[in-house]
Amino acid sequence: NSKYWVYNQQEITQMKRLHFKANSDVIKEGDLGDCAYIVETGSLEVSTNNAMNEKHILGKLKVNDIFGELGLIDGLPRSATVKTIENCTLNVLTKESFNNIVKNNPEALVPIFKVLASRLRSTLKQIGGWSINMYSQVFNFIIVNRIIYFRYTLK
User: Fold this and answer.
1) Helix crossing, 109-127 with 132-153: angle to 10°?
2) Which residue in 40, 84, 112, 145 is a FRET match for 19, CA 20 to 30 A apart?
């Protein structure tokens, strides 16, 4: 069970809150991303389409889970589609809010790296055949490059 990786309640209450009806797309694979979302209420499904346009369900999200963090960090197209299963309330974490949190509360990065690492491990497990050493190398590469990115962008 994920916990809010944003520890300051004031920061959470300053986030924009969005409400979605059941069966609504929140983000679509391939769209540009510049924010992340924290689930306040409800549940969502994460999926991708394969080369034959067949839907592949990657997982489910529940209260306190975060998604869209890759788009928040790198601004590249979304890697998956996230759709509501039921009515949902989501808190929006913008790049500006994220940068303020990083400046004022850098330990808040540790839980998001744990989310990224967990999702990376899950993905690597699905493709199979990777050694523990390879997991470690990929994770270290991501951590080092993200820290360099944060230091560079926050100056």
Assistant:
1) 140
2) 112
